[in-house]
Amino acid sequence: MSEIKWPYANEFGKEENIECDVLVLGGGMAGCFAAIAAARRGLKVVVVEKGAVKRSGAAGTGVDHWESACTNPCSKVTAKEIAEAYVDEQDHLSNGIAHYICCEEGWDRLADMEEFGGKIRDTEDEFKGAEFRDEATKLMFAYDYENKFTLRVWGKTFKPAMHDEMERLGIKICDYTEATSLLTAEAEGKKRGAGAIGMNVHTGKITVFHAKSTVLAMSRPARLWLFNPDLTGLCEFRPMQSIGSGHSMGWRAGMEFTMMEKSVRAEFSAAGSSFPPYSTGNNHNTWYAATMVDSRGVEIPYLDRDGNILKTVSERYHPVKGQKFFLKGGVIDEPKYEYRGPETMPFDELMKRGYKLPFYADLSRMPEEERRVIWGMMIGNEGKTKVPVLDYYENRGFDPAKHAMQVYGTGWTSASFSDDERQLFGAPGGIMHDWDLKTNIEGIYASGDQLFGSDCAGFAAATGYYAGRKSAEWAKNESLIDYDRSQVDEEIERLYAPMYVEKGYGWKELNFALAKCMKNYCGAIKNEALLLQGLDLLKSYREEVVPQLSASNPHDLMRTHEVLDIMDVAEMVMESCRLRKSSSKTLCFTRSDYPEMDPAEDHHFITIRRENGKIVRGDVELDYFGDLKTEYEKHNQDYIEGGRK
Amino acid sequence: MKKMNEIRVSIVPCSADPIIYDDSRCIGCNICTQMCQCDVLLPNTEKGQPPIVAWPGECYYCGACVLQCPVEGAIRLEHPLMNRTKFVEAIPAPSDVE
Hints:
The complex is a heterodimer. Chain A is of the alpha/beta class. Chain A is built from 15 helices and 23 strands. In chain A, helix 12 runs antiparallel to helix 13 (about 555-580). The mean pLDDT of chain B is about 95. Chain B is an alpha+beta fold. The longest helix of chain B has 5 residues, at about 30-35.
């Protein structure tokens, strides 16, 4: 390959020091809102983002719907009802605090978004008269049209609007900077956050951020089981660079996590085993509740929760008689009867009844507004669908009024994975926290995808803002704490090490090996002997391969750092699996050596952290967060009475 | 004393060409290189020339490059061939089925 000239400055060896009150790591939906909350409280705020805040994060190029905005003016449900339903739906192995925040404050963040210039209403009256539109407010709803708590939004407008608001508020944005480790110190016998270290991914410059409080707002882990060295960017659902570096940093600093033993069979990887999300005919999420047909043109029935065939399109968007509301969305897969909404007839039943493959989504059979809202508004605003799906297929001549889009595979996800190929989806594990979203380390808060049991954009926005608020309140009464400089020196040495290896392993080779390790030793079926083998393999990689990792530019060095972070998370996942000595349906967790399913004595949160190289287990009762509404109100009087800002 | 590697970079090809520039339209403003959160693009050191797709395999196909591009049609973003969904003329409902 012919060499090209590196277009950026070479700043290896340079160091910059930045001081602030609140440091936000990650500039996606959660991080931006965290920063805005703290800046509104008059504090000096810095955001560290690996890409560029204007379009970065899983919602960087859009989001088509906003779940659980229960306090919107049209909602017929309360935050308490929906948050408690989410907790119950997951057998209480669920993040009640974060879900309640999402349900109570998600709408407030949409109202903020509108102030910033984002579009949340059908101001042009494109859907005037549609059943899903409220004529007075021009708000539009998805899923449950009766209760109106999930909104359809024009999320393509969101990140640029937030970015401009952040600039207006004087928030310092450090784009193209990967946060790599947390700085900690001891204060009054407790571990406390002191800031973080980052590296510019274009120049190699190190920045040391010295802060009173820190908000973790980075991604959930990825590329643990799934790796494709050719189409690396399509390995997972979320962006290429979103691989769980925040989890790794937390793990190295002694942060406490929970539910990290939970993983699900993979659903999304456009690198081969599935199609890009929402780019094929399907009936879920963005496409709910598309009319589906078989290859003969016979319509596939939607059923209510009792198995009755629904006759109209409208019925797919309403709870059945006697049901208050139904749940649908990112983490809702096969909900309990109480919360189950309309679904198409199960695949096996369709086969038994002689329906013929392949199936298609046929929007031409839907009412015109329903068709346009799915293909047009929703596909035009979901992350990564506007350009490569909506524009692309329209350029190829696709017309939803005339054509039908094929469905692949045996389900609706157009995916085909083995049980050993897993992903952290369906409200996976993450950081353990209290009612302030504070971690076990003083001064460090967590939000969005870094929290356990996380799901959607509304969740990220609401918890981000909340963490920003709480971290600001804390920072107001604190001063900067000194930290031991050796942490910085050691981190720089770790970060730069691959730049000193002339010939060695590339990051892809190690990532590929880690993914195979996870499939072999931490796949669908876990057991102690295999997990120990996996951990032993990781240890050998650390000792033999890591010192031989090689990079020759800041970009590849950043990728190498990511794989080191993936290795930390792999270790945390395997150690977490070892701690749970039983199987659990709720956690999609099966152990061959402990096959008993959800025994009462284990039905609680098991937490994990690493202290001086040793694994420390904790056991936390279900519903440790207390009555959601009561506790929320106890902790947030200032917010409730202060105009919900 | 250890010696640090010289900064070197070359295009890392993959089986797909996610991002294609129309040389006649691209004005070389490099906004796309700044907006790509996966950092797959490098600004061309020759002024006014289209950016270089240095790491095409790391593209996540989010479309930020196209959305932020000031010139319509200067960038084409396309999924690998295997991800092309088939669509057909809508099939009429058979009259003999309920």
